[in-house]
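Shape is hard to put into words, and the shape of a protein is harder than most. The fold becomes a row of whole numbers, each drawn from a learned catalogue of backbone shapes. The outcome of that step, for a single protein, is printed below.
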Amino acid sequence: MKTTAEALNEIEGFLLWEGEKHRARERAHAFASGLPWLTDSQRADLEQRYVRDQLDLSRACLVRIAQRSGELRAEYEAVYAALKRRLAGRLLACAVVACAALVLWACGSR
């Protein structure tokens, strides 16, 4: 069963891809319209090829972006984990110093 966030991500991805398909069709039509000597069947074939090429290019770009996003996420998670460890170590050190100071103060006030 999908979580709400997963379902929303899937819907968003679907809508984004539908938008990309729509833009590819518009670009193909605009390109083919600039070639008035084409017959209707040549224009339709050119538009189909153009759309296919644009969607292949978009898909390849999205794959590269997704891969790089995964790499960046892993890098940032590693940096975040290291920072958490350093902070925890410093907090522990501060707590030890504070306890030692409290013990020394308590011993000195007797």
Q: What stands out?
A: Residues 24 and 51 are 5 Å apart (CA to CA). The chain has one domain: 4-82. Residues 40-108 form the longest helix (69 residues). The radius of gyration is 30 Å.
